[in-house]
Design a protein that fits this description.
elongated
Length: 508
Amino acid sequence: MANLNLSASPSGGKNPKTPVPKASAPKGTASKETPKLRMSPTGDHSPVSRTAGAIIGVVSVVALALAIFLSNPTAPTTHGTGTGSAATASSVTPTGHTTRVSVGVEGMTFTPNHIEVPAGDRLIIDFTNSGDQRHDLVFETGVSSGSLATGETKELDLGIISGDVEGWCSLPGHREMGMTLHVQATGAAAGVSPSGTTASGGHAGHDHGQEAAVGPASPTALTDYAATITPRDPALPPATSETERYYTVTVTEQTTNVTDTLTRQTWTFNGDAPGPILRGHIGDTFHITLVNNGTMSHSLDFHAGLVAPDNVMHSIEPGQSLEYTFVAKNAGIWLYHCSTAPMSMHIANGMFGAVVIDPTDLDTVDREYVMIASELYLGADGQSADALLLSALQPNAMAFNGVPFQYKAHPIQIRTNERVRVWVMDAGPNLATTFHVVGTQFDTVWREGAYVIRGGGSGGGWGQVLSLGAAEGGFVEFTPLEAGHYSFVNHALSLAEKGQTGVFEVTD
């Protein structure tokens, strides 16, 4: 078969670093150390009046606030300005000077990530994305660079600085990885934000649904929704006889349903999570064309290959493609996933799949399935994975093959005395899986390249679980002897109860 001959990333993933100069002194003034002064929190040094009128006024305000709270006790609390241009506090007098600073990116950090500006100065930031993937720089005042490709530059005018200002990269997960920028107004009143209000220190106005994040979708809602869809076919097709295998893996970003009333943003390979399940034999050559039809940087990492990461695992821009070729030298069920940082976010949003390379001594079975375990970190409706839940390792839903409870709502049909093999991959990105089938035992357990048990263990021993950490895989074999409903679960049962469970319906 002819090669697809699609173009690779022009840079080969080795973008030169853009030099990032240090913050310059205000133009038109001599460069000198600015004293780190703090005024009183209010800027008011006059005695506090204790007249009856003032007391009555305070009581009235408190009473009104209490009445509003009691009428709507669940109303959200405002934590910042969120949008609009930088405002000037009335206590700050413009200096007529401009501070200009160049900011770049190194890894997942802004350089510099702390800027000191005299209060009253105008601040202009020349932001260059000198990183290896797309980034932006947004501020709580609403000033934003927009998404920039590697090497692009944008001038950001923050106006007159009257108080401390927080900035960050708004791409999902980047802020939590450390992409924050603090502008400190030296000589400003302590605790005053650029709008003149007391700063909260929170993720003002750009929380991406984290403060409004929904709680865990109920098992009933998840199961009810799963009953309305066509489940993903869990059957693993046999490997064909080809030795040169060609696949195109296309990145797409879309919104998908989790329940009838909750959606989430997913990033996927070929429009589904997990992506396509590939299969082959030892010695086969896999030719993969990755096409990025998304809106941000993405990449691929095939655990099935033995290749240097430099040339094939770098991030590519929207509209770009690359060729990824490897020879399958060893058997296993191998994870593949997006390797763009933060990898946990890209995997949690659906960018994972598996490659099955058959062991040379694989026995014949009647039915063969694949189960890829994964975690869902659901945020607000329509949002990508909740980065705070993700970093805390607290999924609020779990799945086999991408959809919670789908094989409970649609049991998998097999017959008594059929020999069944189930390949299992733990895609994570974080938690372990202990695969168990209720009502039967495993006479064969193959884990991470070796048989733990084959045809029954020594002294007549059989297995009950296949234990896998994140990115580990293997298979189990069993034969149901009686008709009935055999649940399969992650035996970390709190995770099973969030959706990582299904049913084998066995008939005579």
